[in-house]
Amino acid sequence: MNAVSMSSVFARVVAVVGGGAVMVRRATQGSHMPAWGTAPAIPAPKPQGAIPTLKMPTAQGWTGDQTPIAAPGLKVNAFARGLDHCRWIYVMPNGDVLVAEATNAERSARNVFDYAMVATMKRANAMGVSANRITLLRDRDGDGVAESQTVFMSGLNQPFGMALLGDKFYVGNTDGIMVFPYVEGADTITAPGQRLTTFKPAGHWTRSLLASPDGRKLYAGVGSLSNIADQGMAVEEGRAAIHVLDLETEEDRIFAGGLRNAVGMAWEPMTGELWTVVNERDGLGDETPPDYLTSVKEGGFYGWPYCYWGKVVDDRVPQDAAAVESAITPDYALGGHTASLGLCWMPAGTLPGFPEGMAIGQHGSWNRSKLSGYKLVFIPFANGRPSGPPRDILSGFLATDEKVSYGRPVGVTLGADGKSLLMADDVGNVIWRVTGA
């Protein structure tokens, strides 16, 4: 039996075992209200042990003229199609749209169950050969559809975050921040880059970037290697944190820690505070703990791996009482395992009927009995803080029977016109554009 068929057999075994685990946990643990908002009802932890809940839809993609479902008063169209694991979007000052194309790289399995789990991830289009490029999209006539799609940069190492400051273009590769010379309006960058930081690759591999408002610093999200420091804290050094790089001195330091996988970042304009979305730990139940949206305080510690949602201790982890005591409670829960990745500030008036707030791309769960996420959602803000329940911007990425996914939301940003959102879908391989109807 060859490796492919072995992988398929083990994937089926995992599906059966995972399906049984889902049924048992639904029967014994019941259902819970989604853990959302500033004061979520988080169920008591139910450690899942060696057989976690494993439920992931097969990646199907979109067919024909099928699209996500836009909220009332909005419409959606494909800005660009035919990409390869489009994950992150950056809009240049001249309106050029750059898209980072990369994915979770194939890896060797650690055991038989992990072998099947890797096969399952591949089936869900969540692992494979990474394109390792940035693509340039141009909509010259302003009709909301890119007419040209060309390679802007290639040969990168799982690129994700991007930032342009003056004549320098920064890329968040999985192993560190690189800087390249940029000429305004360039069709491509081929010049060699300079390494500014070194990050440990693997695990949570994405490296989001956000420039400070004054352009003097770059913030970078660096996720953990493992779920709960399963291989010890030494290999997690420098991870589960947001780094800040001083562009003048090239000094890199940790800005805040205890953030298991902080991905999207945005500035809240009233307070000037940095905000991020964080993917929390697995294996404690459908809603335990929730992913979250939070302001990020310099020097702050947000709990991982010792505790979650403030000071709720995770008994699976060897404890550090002082770290637990210092843990900051996040601002806003986003539901259990929603895999909230994309984040952008959306000014009032960007979309009709929506006040100011944060738009969040929820990639969707793989480890709970009823799937969650698979949406582009909006959290309203007032006076610099979350001020109400979430609202859908786009939905319909998941089949009603949860067996297949048409798409999975990732990065989100404002369109160049200031009256639209662009969202990356790494299963449909589409950049979706949302505007008023």
Mean pLDDT over all positions: 92
CATH architecture: 6 Propeller
Strand content: 25-35%
- The CATH topology corresponds to Neuraminidase
Major β-sheet annotation: 6 strands, antiparallel
Q: Any idea how many domains?
A: 1
Q: So, the CATH homologous superfamily?
A: TolB, C-terminal domain
Spatial extent as radius of gyration: 21 Å
Alpha-carbon distance between the termini? 54 Å
Instruction: Give start-end ranges of low-pLDDT stretches.
Output: none
CATH class: Mainly Beta
Approximate helicity band? 10-25%
Quickly count the helices. 3
Layout: helices, strands, pairs:
Layout: H1 3-29, E1 36-37, E2 58-59, E3 69-70, E4 74-80, E5 86-91, E6 97-101, H2 112-123, E7 133-138, E8 148-153, E9 162-165, E10 168-173, E11 176-181, E12 194-195, E13 209-211, E14 217-222, E15 241-246, E16 252-257, E17 262-268, E18 273-278, E19 290-296, E20 307-308, E21 312-313, H3 321-326, E22 332-336, E23 340-346, E24 357-362, E25 375-382, E26 385-386, E27 391-395, E28 404-405, E29 409-414, E30 421-425, E31 430-436
Parallel strand pairs: 2-28
Antiparallel strand pairs: 1-22, 3-27, 4-31, 5-6, 6-7, 7-8, 9-10, 10-11, 11-12, 13-14, 14-15, 15-16, 17-18, 18-19, 19-22, 20-21, 23-24, 24-25, 25-26, 25-27, 29-30, 30-31
Helix pairs in contact: 1-2
